[in-house]
């Protein structure tokens, strides 16, 4: 399984969802399953999550004043579908509008609105976590040699150390193999974390 994870390209991001999560989610012994898309929409309504247009504006994007204003980020085909389902362009939920946006580029899996939300959340999670390994909190901080070792860690090393029969892997495990930019190399060339830096000197 590990080999396939690091060598096969993922599918391109699109607006479609697999039938496994649309029809068979948590099916178990029942004759039918749940629909994750419907659950996500209902969760947003239950929790009073602001609408898609509100989040667009909060993320510095132009607030839509008509259906046509959504065309800057959502395809015409999808906007036409939204018109058939929602009475007003203001009613579109974040979980719907956000996932219909064109992706920012090939390095992201989302459009600008969701990317903005992800960025804010990851930043807040990191800077408010006193146990984050780079926080500098003297009571929980790592030593400089320990930090240097932590920064050597990689998913490539993780695959080498924990997968059956994996002896070669690309250094950037989640990037596709490229003969020049990201070639497959022996595991012996992937840096190893030196755990002796945590050895208690007492």
TrEMBL record:
This is Peroxidase. One of its GO terms (biological process) is response to oxidative stress. Keywords: Oxidoreductase, Peroxidase. InterPro entries: Haem_peroxidase_animal, Haem_peroxidase_sf, Haem_peroxidase_sf_animal. PANTHER family: OXIDASE/PEROXIDASE, PEROXIDASE. GO terms for molecular function: heme binding; peroxidase activity. The lineage of its organism: Eukaryota, Metazoa, Ecdysozoa, Arthropoda, Hexapoda. The gene is Px. Pfam families: An_peroxidase. SUPFAM superfamilies: Heme-dependent peroxidases. It comes from Chironomus riparius.
């Amino acid at each position: 399984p590990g080999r396939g994870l690091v060598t096969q390209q993922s599918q391109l991001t699109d607006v479609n969802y697999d039938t496994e999560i649309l029809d068979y989610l948590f099916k178990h012994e029942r004759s039918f399953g749940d629909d994750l898309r419907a659950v996500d929409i209902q969760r947003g309504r239950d929790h009073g999550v602001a609408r898609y247009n509100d989040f667009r504006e909060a993320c510095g994007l132009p607030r839509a004043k008509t259906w046509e204003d959504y065309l800057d980020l959502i395809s015409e085909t999808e906007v036409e579908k939204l018109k058939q389902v929602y009475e007003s362009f203001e009613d579109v939920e974040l979980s719907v509008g956000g996932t219909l946006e064109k992706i920012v580029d090939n390095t992201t899996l989302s459009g600008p609105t969701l990317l903005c939300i992800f960025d804010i959340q990851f930043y807040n999670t990191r800077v408010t976590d006193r146990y984050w390994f780079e926080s500098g909190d003297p009571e929980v901080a790592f030593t400089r040699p320990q930090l240097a070792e932590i920064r050597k860690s990689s998913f490539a090393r993780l695959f080498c150390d924990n997968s059956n029969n994996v002896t070669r892997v690309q250094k950037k495990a989640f990037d596709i193999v490229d003969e020049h930019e990201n070639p497959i190399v022996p595991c012996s060339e992937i840096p190893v974390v030196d755990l002796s830096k945590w050895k208690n000197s007492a």
